[in-house]
């Protein structure tokens, strides 16, 4: 844990415990998003399956990276990332949409919903920290930018599938 980092956050007026709790919620979201993308890529069926699988696998890797970044930030603030995976369901804001329907368009729509929830989570973290904890704010902004890119990537695939269905 970073002593000076913790001191800066505490002196900023931020409630460190509340911030760590919000970061742990984001951490849970990232792990669930990782799995939702990963397993969705495995079960995907339908139009443009190879393209959808590739995109879902790429996003899964990026969600795992986000989980690592958030965990590092939690630790640097003197907290502990969620240690029990069963707690992810209790702490998540974005939730987990079971990819029980393997249709590529259904999977994409589920993941678009997840990205939109993640964008909201990181916007909230950014707003909470932007003038008080620039380290967390920078991390939240960076991850939010990537989540926005993910949403666009998935929306583009939905459009491509829609055009393919018309042919």
UniProtKB/TrEMBL annotation:
Name under which the protein is recorded: Ferritin family protein
InterPro entries in the cross-refs: Dps-like, DPSL_diiron-bd_dom, Ferritin-like, Ferritin-like_diiron, Ferritin-like_SF, Ferritin_DPS_dom
Residues reported to bind Fe cation: 30, 66, 115, 147, 150
Entry GO terms, CC: cytosol
GO annotation terms (biological process): intracellular iron ion homeostasis
Domain Ferritin-like diiron: from-to ranges: 13-165
Alphabetically ordered keywords of this record: Iron, Iron storage, Metal-binding
Any GO molecular function: heme binding
Pfam families: Ferritin (PF00210)
């Amino acid at each position: 844990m970073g002593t000076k980092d913790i001191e800066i956050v505490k002196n900023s007026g931020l409630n460190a415990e509340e911030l760590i709790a919000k970061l742990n919620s984001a951490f849970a979201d990232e792990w669930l998003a990782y799995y939702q993308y990963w397993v969705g890529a495995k079960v995907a069926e339908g139009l443009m399956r190879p393209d959808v699988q590739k995109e879902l696998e790429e996003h899964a890797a990026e969600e795992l990276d986000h989980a690592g970044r958030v965990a590092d930030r939690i630790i640097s603030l003197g907290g502990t990332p969620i240690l029990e995976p069963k707690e992810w369901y209790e702490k998540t804001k974005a939730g987990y949409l079971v990819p029980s329907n393997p249709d590529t368009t259904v999977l994409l729509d589920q993941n678009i919903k997840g990205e939109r929830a993640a964008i909201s989570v990181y916007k909230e973290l950014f707003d909470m920290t932007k003038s008080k904890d620039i380290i967390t704010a920078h991390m939240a902004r960076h991850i939010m930018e990537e989540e926005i890119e993910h949403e666009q990537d998935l929306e583009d695939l939905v459009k491509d599938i829609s055009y393919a269905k018309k042919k």
